[in-house]
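SEVERITY: medium
COMPONENT: batch folding queue
REPORTER: lab tech (J.R.)

DESCRIPTION
The queue accepted two submissions in a row. Attaching both inputs and their returned structure tokens so the on-call engineer can compare them side by side.

ATTACHMENT 1
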Amino acid sequence: MLVYLTLAAGMLLAWLPLFGRSLPFSDDFDFMSVISEGGIPGYLRWLGFFRPLGQYLPVWLFLENRGFHPILVLSTHLISGILLFHVCRSLYGGIRLPVAVALVFLMFPFGYEAMVWIANYSYVLAPMFLLANLLLLLEHTKRNWPASVTFCLSAGLALLTSLSHEILFFATVFSGLFACIDARTGRFRSLKSIRGGWWLPFAPIVGCGLWAVAYYSVVGQSRPKRITGLHLQTIVSVSFRQYSLTDIFHPWFSAVTRPLAFSAWSVATWIACACLISLLLAGLIMLSGIPAPQDGRRGTGFHALVATLALWFGASLIFAFGGGYSLDSRKKYPLLPLLLLIACWFCRALRNKLPVSPGAFWAVGSVVCCSAAMSSWLIVGIWKYESARYNALADFIVKHKLRGHVLVRWKPDLNVAWPQMARTVGYRFDDPAALNLAVEYRGGSDVNVTSSAQATAIRYDPAPCRWFFAK
């Protein structure tokens, strides 16, 4: 219970500013139109079995109440963090290291776009089912469930993973390797010695196969064709391009973006923040005092690393079939648990040789957690500020019946203050493809955002927080 309270306090502290009314952006408007008019049948006619769980559910809840989305995404995020803790503990033992890994996942905004953008909830949901499957396969020997029940549960979780998002399809296929791992030694056991039967490692493949059959059987009008040609170099570039994880720290270097970390905070937010900080630090203090035998050491087991690297390979392989890997942060979210599991293996190997004292665990953990929380506050503040300006821009265009070429002058221009922002989102907030979705949803005509001096110029004035025609 102490672990769960600590993880919950850390997660809520980091993402506290996310609570409140969410604002739609870009693709959200397409989903809102289809779901509000046609419901589930309309979605299936449009996209078939392309991410029905991960995209239909959050948009439908958003249409019911704009405050539901943060609750949904943070609840799923917390469950994934708890599952990651248990997977790490099952593989490498102890408490402090699994808690540290889970807190890094829960508190840092490396994959923030998946959490703040409504339709991108699919990137948050899929890892939860994959982690649940890994835990089931790792600990199936501890349960007295019939082999058929374990097999069906694993296949069902694999199916739910693919129904949420296809990004972890191949990783799920390879996840059956974890049924072959002896958690005590971290080494592979023979298929004959698997308690659930030699067929248990193939359960995830069955679940993924069921989704593939459904996906290619029910053809939606706009279902994406996922195979666009092989891009084998992507398998390597996914690992190399994780350098872009540092993009989230760059806004701290700009005097324009820094104030947005606390711009919309109320007195209640500050009080909640103080309470959560106290709970988190108290939890870290108590966890740091756990006796060494309870936090004991365990052999790292090279085979556990091999199985985890297979998951990473599978998560990278999907991009070889899907047009390549881009650096928008939503695609980093499903990769984070796998990256942290790999890091956990190396940390355990190092810690077996260089044990960490309780004082060092508390001091380092407190600094890292506070840094993570502040980074999340800043990123969420930037997103809320910019998405509000984006929706206000669409309202202005529709109100004044603008069409044709438009020159948009942002003041302040966050793309200048934070040059990596467009990279983490995938495009600018005034990109015509994204802006016109909001305009069309409101009944307006398409515009073409340009830098031409002949275009109709509009500017944002931060004092009254409104858009005006530029003189």
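ATTACHMENT 2
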Amino acid sequence: MDVALDRCQPPTVYAVTPHDLHQRNAQPLLDDARVRLGIAACFPGCQRLEIGLRAAHHPGRTRREKAQIARAALEARLREELLADPRIQQIQGRLGARLQRVAPPDEAPEAARREKQR
């Protein structure tokens, strides 16, 4: 589930999601006994979870959104480092080349190829 914690006001924990699809898909989980037990264990005094649609100005980000932001920042930093490298600049000058994509070292080459084909 792609949600972010909004606030805790016993007896309810409020979470938000960036998409109404996630909100609709979460509705059946809200009455699940295991979810209620987890809420009670993690948030003393709470027995309920409510999931709403996140407002555009809401600062909370989901784990997936945080990972996407971090990855974009890493790619931007790597791109800057590469473009500042005199060897890369020399290659670009001689061949008229340009840097199209930067892949972090943890990304498999096959995944980079699939991304390029999209």
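NOTES FROM REPORTER
The chain is about 50% helix and 15% strand.
No errors were logged for either attachment.
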